[in-house]
Design goal:
It contains 13 helices and nine strands. It is an alpha/beta fold.
């Protein structure tokens, strides 16, 4: 069982090594990188490559660790008891299985994605240490131990919004997805737009990387934003000459809303273009 990328996902040699090392070590793979560099897509394509079920747990600021294990629906049980339902006598009818439970009892080895773990509070990762390490947990309401039939492959993503605890990091295999260079980006774009004219691709990439190199940008455009932009360029039949605008008649790229996502960056770009014209 190994991963080498897919037809739809270009994985660097370092990323391939990281994925396969985590599988071999049976450790969660912690993936960091700029937003839009394909962290979540990695889990999706890994599942596709291994023909495995993908179980996704998208973390929010309000998410608690126990929700990944199970939740006891006491409100429904109270309501059913008032209605005289027979099933109230079996508490297991009111246990809602979480994503970890689903991954643990899967018939085939599953891919468990814990997406954007850094959105939760600081104690969230530590609250999952035992379960991710031992691959089991105890259900107090039913007095049963849930243990993984087949140890799932765990992919954890983080956008580095907050530091993760050392005890949690020790149990993970870590990889940082470096932003693709021009050649890697060319390969990525060709996967998504195989019939794209090379002149348009060349000019789009030049504009894109020049934009990323501007000092002071609040949010640099990402891979996913480049793909959105190229899709719009093709749909609107934008000529390469428009992107090659040397006399600065255009202060910002056409359809810039796919690349620049706040007014501060737009104003910065316009200011630099104005200074260049002077």
């Amino acid at each position: 069982m190994s991963f080498s990328g897919t037809q739809n996902y270009i994985a660097s040699e370092e990323l391939q090594l990281a994925v396969n090392a985590a599988i071999e070590l049976q450790r969660p793979l912690l993936i960091k990188g700029e937003p839009g560099t394909g962290k979540t897509m990695l889990a999706e394509e890994l599942a596709s490559s291994l023909d495995a079920e993908l179980i996704q747990w998208h973390i929010k600021s309000t998410t608690k660790a126990h929700q990944g294990l199970y939740e006891y629906d006491a409100v429904s049980r109270l309501r059913d008891s008032q209605l005289g339902e027979e099933k109230v006598h079996d508490i297991s009818n009111y246990i809602v299985k979480g994503k970890l439970w689903q991954a643990f009892e899967a018939d085939k080895r599953a891919i468990l994605l814990i997406d954007e773990i850094d959105k939760a509070d600081i104690e969230f990762p530590n609250d999952l240490l035992q379960e991710l390490d031992k691959m089991e947990f105890y259900v107090y309401e039913t007095r049963q131990t849930v243990k993984a039939v087949l140890r799932p492959i765990v992919i954890i993503t983080s956008n580095n919004e907050k530091e993760l605890p050392d005890a949690f990091l020790r149990r993970c295999f870590f990889h940082y997805i470096q932003f693709p260079d021009r050649q890697e980006m060319t390969n990525i774009v060709n996967v998504h737009f195989p019939n794209l004219k090379q002149e348009l691709l060349s000019q789009a990439l030049e504009s894109f990387f020049n934009l990323r190199d501007i000092p002071g940008l609040k949010k640099k455009p990402s891979t996913s934003e480049l793909l959105d932009w190229i899709k719009l360029l093709v749909a609107q039949d934008i000529a390469p000459e428009v992107l090659r605008d040397k006399d600065n008649t255009h202060s910002i790229p056409p359809l810039y809303g796919a690349l620049l996502k706040n007014e501060q960056d737009i104003q910065l770009f316009e200011k630099l273009a104005f200074m260049a014209r002077r």
